[in-house]
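#structure-requests
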Amino acid sequence: MVADRHEYIFRNGSTTYYFSSRFFPPQVRRDVYALYGFVRVADNLVDYQPVDPHQFHDFRSLYAHSFSSGKSSGDEVIDAFIELQKRKHFDPAWTEAFLDSMEHDLSKSTFETIEDVLTYIYGSAEVIGLFMARIMDLDEASFPYAAMLGRAMQYINFIRDIAEDNGLGRRYLPLLDTPLEALSEKEAKKNPEAFSAFIRREIERYQGWQKEAAKGYSYIPRRYRIPIMTATDMYCWTASQIAKDPFIVFESQVKPPKFRILRKGVAHLLGVALSCSI
């Protein structure tokens, strides 16, 4: 079944999002799976090594032709996303922005200014928040907060994935106003105090965005707020673990275990959990 494939992609692509999403009602959960299936497949096409740019361009072209023509693409992931896009009135420009950011990753690159990073993040993460707002039928007044939540979560991913991105020839965190010349483990060990200060400063940047995003919770019905807050709490936990020991990013990808995600979700469901303090 198509739904089964989407769930498989989701479960194998993100522990935090998958188990948090289990707290959505079934129909919303199915829509989230369709969304995630599309964005994860596109993301994988630019991340799996060795990268074959033709595969991504074929995927993008197939989406574009199917969307414009109204005909089936023959790819169940693309077709399910287009159906969702039309039913939930996604702005097609959001999808183009997402695909633009993914295409950017086909070239090994670094970002030198926070403005450049935010341009990338808009397509790679903020529009995901906008898609989610549409899936939950939220008031458009919530959209800036939904986008900000996507931005905050993506930034923690950048911090958490420093070692992996080094291997891909990428650096998403700008190094302005720091003596660091790179984010390699070798460079970090040469300047341990500077590296630790840099990471903690970037976590503070995330915290500012997360506080702004949390102002939008009031727009989200409680039955939808539980999975959103659960995922948010897991990102806050990840940030706190890295802040304690910034060098942990070279040892492992800091990710909450399944039991922690489910325990927090149940606590929110029962109304006995506070959102992560930042």
